[in-house]
Structures are given as structure tokens and as C-alpha cells.
Amino acid sequence: MEAAPGGSPRPAAQAPASQPEPRAPEPRAPEPRAPEPRSDRRAGRLSFCTKVCYGIGGVPNQVASSATAFYLQLFLLDVAQIPAAQVSLVLLGGKVSGAAADPVAGFLISRSRRTGSGRLMPWVLGCMPFIALAYFFLWYLPPFTNLRGLWYMAFYCLFQAVSTFFQVPYTALTMLLTPSPRERDSATAYRMTLEMAGTLLGAAAHGLIVAGAHGPHRCEDAEFPGPGAVPPNATCLYSIAAAVVAVTYPVCSGFLCLGVKERPDPSAPASSRGMSFLAGLGLTVRHPPYLKLVICFLFISAAVQVEQSYLVLFCTHASELHDHVQSLVLTILVSAVLSTPLWEWFLQRFGKRVSAFGITVMVPFVILLAAVPTAPVAYVVAFVSGVSIAVSLLLPWSMLPDVVDDFQLQHQHGPGIETIFYSSYVFFTKLSGAGALGISTLSLEFAGYKAGACQQAEQVVVTLKVLIGAVPTCMILTGLCILMVGPGPKVPSQDAARQLSLRRRTSYSLAAS
Question: Would you say 404 and 184 are in contact if contact means Cβ atoms under 8 Å apart?
């Protein structure tokens, strides 16, 4: 009995002995943690070499995409001489196959296991040889004529699908380079700048090589060439241009493999299986900032694709600018390359939402080009269009990591959620581009476009002017209105960013151990 009272004073004595007050200094642990954000920044800082090698890895896909955007439609209509209705099906089928491959790629990549070289890097390297072969045969002119539509449909669908399996893990790799949002934005800017520089060199090489197939002498030799009247050197020139672009895939992939190290997945420890792709897709689609971002850039990206696809056709058939086609394409790309670093500074200084207004700079100029298709106006429009295209390409890839961070702070999830975000975004943008290009190319068929003809009907000229001016304008203004209505995607606050950074560092250490 006395032991009980004797024991009671002991707990009373243990109350001060337990000394919650002395443990109170343990909250002073945040004082040593105060320098940890600096160490986090140092630990999450990417070297210049890493950023450059990461940017080089995305060059081939953009070079190939730029060449197809500017020249594939002209090649199919005037060299392969496929009817415009079949060209519409080829473009639509290719874009739809690329869009359909996005959720498949997201599912397979999100369920794949981490290897010695990472979880995303093996997909990038494994797809590389297949893309190069598909791209080369996309520009090859087969000896038969009846089934050329099916030939180009097959290889364009294959190219778009395999390209998706390359692009989805490559872009999602941004989230696994560093836990620092600022460093990810910087890596994105390096990627966009180098991709545009590669696009410039690739489009310049492709355009200069195939220029002989579309010279004015073609119409001097034959008053009205019909089907089968293909310039004798066109096949060789397009095959050489395709080979030059295809070689960039193994070269640039080698730089990516040697210079970039993929970190462990920050979403969860490596032992976690993660959520299913369909469950993750349902969560991402219901996330309001992501939904607004996707809908906004559905219209803007479709406008850019229409502008690129019909510029060459407009200069060739709706104006007297066929001698300036290569120079105008180079002007657009040079302007985009030079303005990308300036837009990155503008994003950091004034915010991403304000920077979106830079896309509207091209609107009055494309309308002016449709009304006054002269060489001086065309070069001004090309320069301004490059500035607008640069921000339209940089902005969504800079805002998407912020949306992923916001989602990760609100939801518990398994590994691979960033892949679902990126793959679904590419899926929706490709789907919108497929619809826009398919419908617009079909409008040429209704207007009476004649494959291989040196001079098109007046209805075709009017249709090309509408496609180069009014259509991109309406799409851009619609997308910006959607972006500006209501709250947009926000960058996480400093406390939230620190919390997310600490969570990722813990996950990195757990996965590394």
C-alpha cells in the first residue's frame, strides 16, 4: 500500500524528471533546419551540363515534328500526289494514333519497374531506333501509286505512336530531375531553347535539301502537271532529308543517356506499386487547375499546328511568296529560339498568367498577311509568329509542373502520377490537333484543291487565307479567354514547396536506400 503512494510521488517527481520543458528545446530543431532549405537548393540544383544534355535529348522529336508540320502536307499533296481527302485521313489517322498511344504509354510506363538506368530512361532509349526507321519511310516514295495513301497512313501512324512512347517519359523526366520547382522551370527553359535550336537546324536542313523539288521551274516545264508528274529528283531529295533527321535520334539520345541521371521516383518509395492508370487519370481530369490548363491549350496548340501546316501551302498557292518559303520558315524558328530565354525571364519576373498575353501578339499580323500577302509583311508576320509560338510552347510545360505539385499536396497517391499528367496532356493536345488538321485539310478537298497543279482555283486561295488568318485567331482568343476566367494554376507557397521538397527528399533517400 505504501508502495503505491511511494510510487505516486515518483510519477510526480518524474513529471519534472520527464522534463517536457527541457524537451521544448527540441522544437529548436527548426533552427538547424533553417539552413536546410539552402542545402535543399544546393542538393536540388542541376548542373549546366545536365540541363544541356536533358535539352539535347528532346531535339530529335521536335526536329521531326517541325519538318512534318511544315512540309509533310506539301509532300503528300504535290510530290506523292495523294488526293486532299486521303491526305486529310492520313493526318487525322496519324494524330489520332499518337493521341491513342498516350494513355497506353502512360499506363505501361506508370506500371513499369525501376531499372539500373531508371524507370523512364529505358523507354526513351528503347523507342529511338523504331522512330528513326518510321520517320525515314514516311518520306519514301514507293513505286506503286494505288496504295500510297495506305503506305503513308501506316508509317505516319507508326511514327506518331512510337514518338509518343518516346516523348511521354522524356517530358515526365522533368519531375524526376530535381525536387526544386525553380530548377525544373530552368531545365524546361533549357529544353525548350535547345529543342527550338534543333528545330531551326533540322527545318533549315530539310527545307534546303528539298527546295529543288518545289522550285518555280517545275511549273515552267509543264503547264498543268497531273498525277504522276513528279520532279525526277524529288524522291532522292526527300529521302536524303529524312535520313539526316533520322540520324539525330541516336546521336541526341546518347547525350541524354550520358549526361542525365534519373532520380528515384519522388511519389513514393520504390516498393510501392502505386495507383492504376485509370484511377490516376480520373483524379487528374477532376483536378480543376489541370482541367483548365488542358482546355486552354487545346485551342492554342491547335492554332499553332494549323498555322504551321498551312504556311507553306499559303505561300505556294495563295500568294507570290513561293521563293521565300525557306526564308520565312527560318525566320519563324530563329525568332522562336531567340525569344525563348527572354520569355523565361518574363515568366519569372511577371508570372506565367501575364505571359500568356504574349500569344496574342501574332493575331493582328496573321490577319494582315491574309489581307496583304507581300514579302515585307510576310517577314514581319514570320518574326512575330515565332515570338508568339515560343511562349505558346514554353508556357504549358512550365505550368504543368506547378499543377502536378498542387495535386501532390492535396492527394495521396502512388508512384508514376507525373507520367499520367504528362501523357494525358499530350493525349488531349494531339486529339485537338488531329481534329483541327483533319477538318481543315478536308476543307481543301471541298474547295477543289488539285494535287500537283501549279495554279489552284480561287476558292482554294480563299480557303487558305481563312486557314492562315481567321482560324488561328479564333482558337487563340478562345483559349486565352478560358485561361483568364477564374483562378489559374498557382505555384505552391514557400511553406508548401518546402513541405513537398522535404517529402521528396525523404522519398529519394528511402528509394536510394
Answer: no
Cα 101 to Cα 160, 379, 426: the distances in Å are: 8, 37, 10
Q: Decide if pLDDT at 236 tops 50.
A: yes
Q: How confident is the model at residue 158 (pLDDT cuts 50, 70, 90)?
A: very high
Identify which of 63, 36, 119, 479 has the alpha carbon closest to the alpha carbon of residue 300: 479
Report CA-CA distances (Å) from 194 to 49, 191, 341: 13, 5, 11
Contacts of 481 (CB under 8 A, 6+ apart): none
Burial status of residue 344 (CB atoms within 10 A of its CB: 0-12, 13-18, 19 or more):
buried
* Local structure of 81: helix, strand or coil: coil
Across 260-269, 305-314, 365-374, which has the greatest mean pLDDT?
Answer: 365-374
Q: How far is CA 432 from CA 263, 281, 391, 426, in A?
A: 33, 18, 19, 10
* 86, 438 Cβ separation under 8 angstroms: no
The type of residue at 264 is P
Could you report the per-residue pLDDT of 162-200, keeping only the tens digit for each? 998 898 888 888 777 877 777 877 888 888 778 877 777
Please give the single-letter amino acid code of residue 88. S
Q: What's the pTM?
A: 0.70
Distances, alpha carbon 92 to alpha carbons 88, 149, 266, 452, 512, in Å? 6, 12, 37, 21, 44
